[in-house]
From TrEMBL:
Annotated GO MF terms: magnesium ion binding; phosphatase activity
Entry protein name: HAD family phosphatase
Entries under PROSITE patterns matching the protein: COF_1, COF_2
Pfam families per UniProt: Hydrolase_3 (PF08282)
GO cellular component, as recorded: cytosol
SUPFAM superfamilies: HAD-like (SSF56784)
Signal peptide annotation: none
Organism, as annotated: Streptococcus cuniculipharyngis
């Protein structure tokens, strides 16, 4: 029996224009009424998730920042987190200095900071997607105010970021969990932290085993989560790597693929 559904947001639960299809809402409400817990699992920070809960009236937990933080959606209290140390942040700042045009951004509990003397257009754009504004700052301020930084993101034009990833990914992976989550974002998180690790922590909280969990996703930052869940479902619009990682496939995010997955693999088989 499936007792927990973990679903990604962008490219999965949401359409390309960041809307929440009513068909997805209805399917999640149906399984929630049957006693299945629902966890949103996304790379977004809190400000980019809360507004959707005005439409999504169900849900128990939200795993945010690609697994770095977990919130109870009943009161948005922080129930678990993993953060970068000041020493780790300093290492990332030093590395970024060798790549003009790539901007290091830090995701704190409430704010998005960019280590620069201004907010670049690409950073401002990304901040707008999570309904906030980025703040320009420096390392001295980060150290003095002892920010709680969940994750760091290198942002830049795709071609420049491709070179950065090719040259630095292997080195960074020795100290951090890393993922290319968007064409313009390469992320560094505390070592060993991803959506799967946070989902495993949540499962332990409720004494659930992986075979009681269904996960749905589309991007490479969903790979570990899909592998961990007993039932990992790739979206029709998923990357080739994601599709190759599982035998279960649903429709695209433009076709309410989350709802179809719930009906096909849970409700129609009496697994809820």
């Amino acid at each position: 029996m499936i007792k927990l559904i973990a679903t990604d947001m962008d490219g999965t639960l949401l359409t390309d224009d960041k809307q929440l299809p009513q068909e997805n809402i209805a399917a999640l409400e149906q399984v929630s009424a049957a006693g299945v817990k629902v966890a949103i699992c996304t790379g977004r920070m809190k400000s980019g998730v809360i507004p959707y809960f005005k439409e999504l009236t169900i849900g128990d937990f939200a795993i945010l920042n690609n697994g770095c933080s977990t919130y109870s959606t009943k009161d948005w209290s922080l129930t678990a987190y993993h953060a970068l140390s000041l020493a780790e942040i300093a290492d990332l700042v030093e590395l970024c200095q060798a790549y003009p045009g790539i901007y290091l951004t830090l995701v704190e509990k409430e704010n998005l900071y960019v280590l620069a003397d201004h907010v670049p257009e690409i950073v401002a754009y990304d901040a707008s997607l999570v309904f906030t504004q980025a703040i320009a700052t420096d390392l001295a301020t980060v150290e003095a105010e002892d920010f709680l930084v969940f994750q760091a993101m290198f942002m830049g034009d795709e071609e420049l970021l491709d070179r950065f990833q090719q040259e630095q990914a292997a080195n960074l992976a020795q100290q951090f969990s890393v993922v290319r989550s968007q064409s313009y974002i390469f992320e560094a998180m505390p070592k060993g932290v991803n959506k799967a690790s946070a989902l495993a922590e949540l499962a332990d909280r409720f004494a659930l085993t992986p075979d009681q969990i269904m996960a749905i996703g589309d991007g490479n930052n969903d790979l570990e989560m899909l592998a961990y869940a007993g039932l990992g479902v790739a979206m029709g619009n998923a990357t080739a790597e994601v599709k190759a990682s599982t035998n279960y496939l649903t429709r695209t995010n433009e076709e309410a693929g989350v709802a179809q997955a719930i009906r096909t693999y849970i409700l129609n088989k009496g697994l809820a």
